[in-house]
Amino acid sequence: MTKYASDSSNFGADGPFFRVVREGLEGLVAGDDYFDLLGDDVVISVPGYPKRLQGRQNIIDLYSGYDDFMTVRAVDHLRAYRDPEASVVTLEYEVHGESVQTGRPYNNRFVSIITIRENKVRHWRDYLDPIAVFDASGWPDADQGDRDS
């Protein structure tokens, strides 16, 4: 096992995101932090977004600046559904924090569909509310565009 993130980061051993993921996948995967749970050839996708990433290092590179963008204070309301025959786990959870740039609150709900083989995550598909990300990050700027009063 290898640590890819500092323990205090959002993805590190002490981070709230990793704690809830570890709980939801308990007994199925092994790793010292979120990135260590991923297989070398993992695929991560978010339907509705143009990006599909393959490979642990590409995932690490994508999320390397996440702690500078969003502070995650808590991850809760975990529900885990397991299909051992298909090696698939579905996790439902909520993430709470704030945007580092704007200080605005960030509250989002996720559904993650995860395929596991040989004690590693091989595919991770996320469904989330992109508007929650936009609201927290201040995009689009509230002063731009026409708004109904």
* Tally of discrete structural domains: 1
Q: Strand content of the residues, in percent? A: 35-45%
Which structural class fits the helix and strand makeup?
A: alpha+beta
Summarize the helix and strand pattern as letters. HEEHHEEEEH
Q: Cα distance, first to last residue?
A: 55 Å
Q: Profile the largest sheet.
A: 6 strands, mixed
- Poorly predicted spans: none
- CATH topology, what is it called? Nuclear Transport Factor 2, Chain: A
Number of strands: 6
* CATH class type: Alpha Beta
How do the strands of the widest beta sheet line up side by side? 2-1-6-5-4-3
Radius of gyration: 16 Å
Query: Tell me, what's the shape?
Result: globular
The amount of helix comes to: 10-25%
Summarize the structure.
It is built from four helices and six strands, in the order αββααββββα.
Q: Please, could you describe this protein's structure?
A:
- The protein is α+β, with helices and mostly antiparallel strands.
- The protein has one domain: Nuclear Transport Factor 2, Chain: A (Roll), CATH 3.10.450.50.
- It is 19% helix and 40% strand.
- The chain is built from 4 helices and 6 strands, in the order αββααββββα.
- It has a 6-stranded mixed sheet.
- β1 and β2 form a beta hairpin.
- The longest helix is centred in the first third of the chain and has 9 residues, at 16-24.
- The chain is globular.
- The mean pLDDT is 87.
Comma- or semicolon-separated keywords:
149 residues, alpha+beta, 4 helices
